[in-house]
Amino acid sequence: MMTNLELRIATINVSGGEKTFETVEHDTRKSRQEALLMLVSRLNADVLCLQEVAQYIDADGVTHNIIEEISQTSDYEDIFYGKTIAMETHMQVKKKEMVEGIFNDWWNWCKGNAILSRLPFARLSDPSKSGVPRNIPLYRPISYEGNRDSDPRYTLLSRLKEAPFPFISTLHLTTLIGERPPAARPEKIEQARLMRYQQMNRFMDLVRQHILDEGLPLIVAGDFNATPDEIAITRLLESENGFIHLRPENMGRTHFDMNQAVDHIFFYPRERLVDYQCWIESSDLSKRASDHLPVVADLQIK
């Protein structure tokens, strides 16, 4: 008889700390990095989904990436990093980090999403065999202008090599300049919501035939930049496709500029979810590590 899989998954947008690094002293930057490492260790997730992870290759060819430190301090053996923006393909003088990279002789600078797992990754087609996640675009603008309005958006799609072999996606959807307080404009809010709806619709096109129609378990976690009442969530995920929003027991904001959560975890299909507990990790340590708070869920899947 097959036993249920017990799994803890956590999602964090880590760029809050990185943005602060641009304007603070070295000691404060180091403190934020240390806070993130301590936070990840405390969360003790089996699968960790990260968004906006930056890395650069310095003039000596050494790669600097917080993922390696996380993997070493928290025992993650399977790691995958997917670039969304990179100097090598998106060089733009309006992007501060890229200009700084040029004048620091970096070989490359990039930002993207990552997934770290204590369980091995499987092939998407055959969970009995080892595999790697795939980095899949949901939105690629015609030209990159060095700002969030033209940021490409991707999802990382993975599968675990342990029954019932759940698929796990981490994604980061669009937010636009002028969408949020204090300078929010109605037309920008509407445009951003439409873009997120379109991106989620592309995600559904990706997973519908090979995952949803087959009734296979799928966890979607990340920074949606969408509050729970947006149609990208209420219509596409919940109403039309039957995803369960794993609602935190302490439901509230996950980003300091918002009064509702924009980071979420969803599960499909309902009948494969035995039980779950979900919460927003709102400790002082979380607030020191990033301007996004982690969302964590303990699941039992059959």
Describe this structure in words.
The chain is an alpha+beta fold. The protein has a single domain (5-301), classed as Deoxyribonuclease I, Chain A, CATH 3.60.10.10. Helices cover 29% and strands 30% of the residues. It is built from eight helices and 13 strands. The chain has helices spanning 15-21, 26-43, 66-74, 87-90, 96-103, 186-212, 231-239, 284-289; strands at 5-13, 47-57, 63-65, 78-86, 108-117, 134-139, 153-159, 167-172, 218-223, 244-245, 263-268, 273-280, 295-301. The strands form two sheets. Strands 1, 2, 3, 4, 5, 12 and 13 form a seven-stranded mixed beta sheet that branches. A six-stranded mixed beta sheet has the order 6-7-8-9-11-10, covered by helices on one side. Strand 2 (47-57) and strand 3 (63-65) form a beta hairpin. Helix 1 runs antiparallel to helix 2 (26-43) and helix 2 (26-43) crosses helix 3 (66-74). The longest helix has 27 residues, at 186-212. The chain is globular, with a radius of gyration of 19 Å. The N and C termini lie close together (11 Å).
